[in-house]
Design goal:
alpha/beta, Beta Polymerase, domain 2, two-stranded parallel ribbon, 28% strand
Length: 197
């Protein structure tokens, strides 16, 4: 089936194969709307349901940093297919909301988590994080602690936003494994016992 689809969409298909038991096509990013329309409209395929759109960050691992992945389902033929497009940071991806209306929220989620913009999206704004949220939390270069924190302030009786503050004053890092630390503590205890006697 992969060969037939690749033959039908021509140069829009960059590669195809079976990954994790599912037919996977890598396609040209600019052709995503055209290819998805073909997969939905074709009588032999009928991929009428968009299951998911997700992003992947390959920071430093590939030439194109991001990948947008589309999962489709054909209820008529009980088949699934995965489409991948590679894109560079800051380059917009054509929105597929005109092909699948459910893409609206999936594209907003990918934008919110990875910062991948979708061109001609009807309402591209954050969906999972707060409107004032800084950065994109699923990117590999996003700090684990984030940039800010939200907490309730008893004195002000309201929710406040403030920069993350991680005091290190009372922390000691010996970088030993727990087992080595236990052996060291046991030897120190034995040495103290000998001094006491």
């Amino acid at each position: 089936m992969g060969f037939l689809i690749a033959e039908d969409i021509g140069t829009d298909c960059l590669a195809y194969g079976v990954e994790w038991g599912e037919l996977t096509l890598t396609i040209d990013a600019l052709a995503v709307t055209r290819v998805l329309t073909y997969l939905r409209e074709s009588d032999q395929l009928q991929f009428a349901q968009l299951i998911d759109i997700c992003g992947v960050d390959y920071l430093g691992q590939r030439d194109l940093r991001f990948e947008v992945v589309y999962h489709l389902l054909s209820l008529v033929y009980n088949r699934r297919i995965r489409l991948k497009i590679g894109i560079e940071e800051g380059i917009p991806v054509p929105s597929v909301t005109s092909v699948y209306s459910s893409a609206d929220w999936w594209e907003r989620e990918v934008f919110d988590m990875y910062g991948i913009p979708f061109e001609d999206h009807p309402d591209l704004r954050r969906i999972l994080t707060d409107y004032d949220f800084e950065g994109y939390p699923m990117r590999k270069d996003f700090p684990l602690t984030g940039y800010g924190e939200v907490r309730y302030d008893e004195d002000q009786k309201r929710v406040i936003y403030e920069p993350v503050n991680l005091p290190q004053a009372f922390r000691t890092f010996d970088f030993e494994s727990p087992w080595e630390a236990m052996e060291t503590a046991a030897m120190e205890t034995a040495a103290l016992g000998k001094k006491a006697s």
